[in-house]
Amino acid sequence: MKIRDLIEVPPVRTVIRLADLADSSLRRHLVETFIFTGEVTFTLANILEKVAGLEGKGFFVIGNFGSGKSHLLNVLSLIVNDSEARGLFKASCRDGSASESKLPELLEQAAQVNPLVVEISLVEHSNREYLEEIVLKEISARLQAAGSDIEVPLAFDGKSRRENFAALAEAIKKHNRGGLLLLIDELSEFLRSKENIRAYNEDVRFLQYLGEYAENLPAWIIATMQENIENTGSLAGELLHKIKDRYPVRFRLSGEHVKEIVSGRLIRKKEEAEIELPRLYDQLQGMFDGLPFSREDFMDLYPVHPATVEMLDELRPLFSQHRGVIDFIHHRLAGDPGRGIAPFIDNSGQELLTPDYIFDHFRERLRETVETSPFSEQVFHHYEREAEKLFEDKDEMQVALRVLKLLVLGAVARDPRSFSVPELTTLLLHRYSILESAINYEYIQELMDKLLAHGAYISTREHEHETYYSIDLKADTGLLLEKKLKQIENELS
Description:
This protein is α/β, with parallel strands linked by helices and 493 residues long. It is built from 22 helices and ten strands. Strands 3-4-5-2-6 form a five-stranded parallel sheet, with helices on both faces. A hairpin with a 2-residue loop joins strand 9 and strand 10 (466-471). It is elongated, with a radius of gyration of 28 Å. The model has no long low-confidence stretch (mean pLDDT 85).
């Protein structure tokens, strides 16, 4: 039985931008591929509740690059604006968490408010432009597209902000709109890129005015940021407090719900999986004398090893957060001929996508990063050259290199870690024997003994009668020198 007999790998888009809304072929896809993680569901429920209650407010949605901020704005725009998208969205809601179960009702109430929805992607604008000018221009264009005969004055045309926004309120009211839903993407990067402190302060003060104005129109301003606004520039104390007062609600998309994304979007189980997966779990448990993950996690994440998800979380600072995680899992499972990645779903149903594949997928990133390059190019490259001399058996050599990949990943993780032989065995799940579980652990122990005897870059520590292995960049220079001299001697002879 192959993995593909038990699961499907649906198509995904690893990069989503607000501009995708303009593509009619993508609109349905954006809603259908939306993942109801706990963080995202809580954020949506709170925003829709404020819209439904006509309570104008400013929101900051903060999350690292690739954590799903743009996808959230896209979906929010679609479900408020488009009845078809709204139907798809409500059909996707489950009766799980309290936040998710009340989304359909809140969405209907928010849709009845019928706000004017304006999306602004600041990555499409120069840092020399002022935020006020960008916002008013986009709102004016949206009103004109809706057939408004009331011109909203642009910023810096000689009129005050109060006059400009009074004209805006009149136009919105005339078109039977219940308010303004303003979606601003990549605000922190835009502010950080400002050329001088004057331009920066001007934009922040306009942001403050928007927050004050939100209560009156009403308006709902949702701005996505990669960091807190106080980290975007030299924000004076009084102005900072005013911004915090005007945007009191801050949601954080931490990217820690990878398990929900894997089981909810990246993998679809076939009917056969309900019968076969419990049996596969029992087989693995027998071969490894117990597993470091539960039956539930195995069922949810198959064919991804649960430890792979945990290690991806440890390595998130290196891999563009969710975007890198989604790219890794999707293309490792489905394959990518352009990058020479074979479809993992063609493998035996007993195999799992183990953490060592992370090294293969992100090796170029490891090579390009100053802090991690020595582990990839100095340590692992050394063992690639020496492996055939250390291990006569090719299968043994390949397993040893997989172990080294795990050690490298442990060394470059957010909190560097070492591994015991039992941990390495259950991370790799290499089945040397299907009959005697102890042999599988002994096999990895023998490999570690050979690698340690080689002497370079591997260190050990003892803890509670267990040996833990890790990478040490301070190589055994004596051994390396001896090998180099032997190589020169052979060349001379």
